[in-house]
Amino acid sequence: MPEYKAPLREIKFVMDELLDMPSHYANIPAYADVATPDMVDAILAEGARFCEQELAPLNRVGDIEGCQRHEDGTVTTPTGFKEAYAKFVEGGWPSLAHDEEFGGQGLPESLGIVISELVGSSNWSWGMYPGLSHGAMNTIEQHGTDAHKATYLTRLVSGEWTGTMCLTEPHCGSDLGILKAKAEPNPDGSYAITGTKIFISAGDHDMADNIIHIVLARLPGAPAGTKGISLFIVPKVLPNEDGTLGDKNAVECGSLEHKMGIHGNSTCVMNFDGAQGWLIGPENKGLNCMFTFMNTARIGTALQGSSAMEASYQGALAYAKERLAMRSLTGAKAPEKAADPIIVHPDVRRMLLTQKALNEASRALVYFASQQNDIVKKAETEAERKSAEELLSFLTPIAKAFLTEAGCEATNLGMQVYGGHGYIAEWGMEQLVRDTRIATIYEGTTGIQALDLLGRKVLMTQGASLRTFTKIVHKFCKAESGNKALSKLIKPLMEVNKEWGDLTMKVGMGAMKNRDEVGAAAVDYLMYSGYIVLGYFWARMAKVAQDKLAAGTSEEAFYKAKLTTANFYFRRILPRTRMHAATMTAGAASLMDMAEEDFSFL
């Protein structure tokens, strides 16, 4: 199993030098006094220690043992998971980025995301247990009553209880408009929730005293489709008026899913048999409220792609430096050894640099998105909050879908670097492939995210959402247009940024004649967009590195590596936009012309 080391230097580069988080925190009054540089450094150091020493050693354990469901419907987690969670709670980590009003520490969401990266890279399956709770907290904080907050939010913030999101049912995946779970009113104002939910991550476990399920269900007489869905809080154990735990609610894990990966997390079929629940938010507006949870989860899932890239790259790089195989094509590089380390071979370099380039830019995108989230939550003016929200809304489907697709590519490359050993479980690389594969599926598949980006975010706003980002790119390129040292980056970035708008118009014109054109173009459009977004961040990182080298630095090798990786990205990765430009404009006919009966002649 690769030994995970928290990449603190890389993290600090993005936080301090690229995004200037110290100034960002200082300019938001809510964070100015709490997120000081010394405090941030101390949190990162302690978070790194916890993840390296407590979580990383359990990653393989969780994969081998998995979770166990017992006859009474309870679930136990792999060896060490419960104990690690107790230390996590004792350290105050669940409360890090939540308001002091509810027992939180009042630190920025963007700092919480960095800790989530460390947790995800060291042990994603374990990290899903506290990770799902963040969405439940945000949903209750935004849409719950004062009573909900007093009863549930404070205990979720402390980590005493954990949370889930219960959307999907056996007959429906992303099409929540056809869900069947029902909510019948009780005389006391609560509701009896009945139905079955599937694929519920952390649905039951032994790590916390209570689990708070956020559940979608229909009220009697509710309109059909998505306009008739309401949202409910359904605890595993019913709390008494004084907050102590009372009777077990009528909800339990019916079975555990047998999965490709993330074995250490309990993915449950949850049965609600008249379970007592409480309405959260307005009747029939549950899906609107649930998007608070889902958007939180989508950024978290984007982080899974990024975290997996880091873990896989660390393992692949260490192996490539040690593994001996063949001689370099340009002559022996280690003549004293039987063969050269495989890192000397161009194809191994291709794989490592692809991992490195995608990984470092993905971190920049996730941190940038979380920076916008800070502004949405705590900026002083409505104008600032609205601007950041529009930008975050545009970037969320790109981050979720593109970074998880890139995570799958990077982990596959990491496994490939190992050759045959990569296919063997004890090395840990194939586990990363299996654990990461789900990320392109849950919280909305790549196709669903692509439709959201192209259909809802771009075309339905007549391109306004797209322009919020292309203007940022244009402004940067214009400012650096005279920078001859970066011309090989700035010029192609300017070209694709302009083409982005042209292609959007072309796809939009086609969609006016045939709406299938949107579905046919969507995934290629999203991937095209993702490569440009990462290209923008690589150009910015190269600018930072160039300035540092010009000023003189003791870390010359570090900054030169940034420039070299940026050059690799623009020469070898950004050209992928050419293929996606061609396929997104190829039209729907090549997909839709074949009759259903002609797909198979068996």
How would you concisely characterize the structure shown here?
By secondary structure, this protein is α+β, with helices and mostly antiparallel strands. It has helices spanning 8-18, 21-26, 29-32, 37-65, 81-90, 109-143, 146-158, 286-322, 346-378, 382-417, 429-437, 446-458, 464-479, 487-513, 516-551, 556-573, 576-584, 589-592, and strands spanning 68-69, 75-76, 161-166, 182-185, 191-201, 210-217, 230-235, 237-239, 245-248, 251-256, 267-279.
Blueprint of the fold:
Blueprint: H1 8-18, H2 21-26, H3 29-32, H4 37-65, E1 68-69, E2 75-76, H5 81-90, H6 109-143, H7 146-158, E3 161-166, E4 182-185, E5 191-201, E6 210-217, E7 230-235, E8 237-239, E9 245-248, E10 251-256, E11 267-279, H8 286-322, H9 346-378, H10 382-417, H11 429-437, H12 446-458, H13 464-479, H14 487-513, H15 516-551, H16 556-573, H17 576-584, H18 589-592
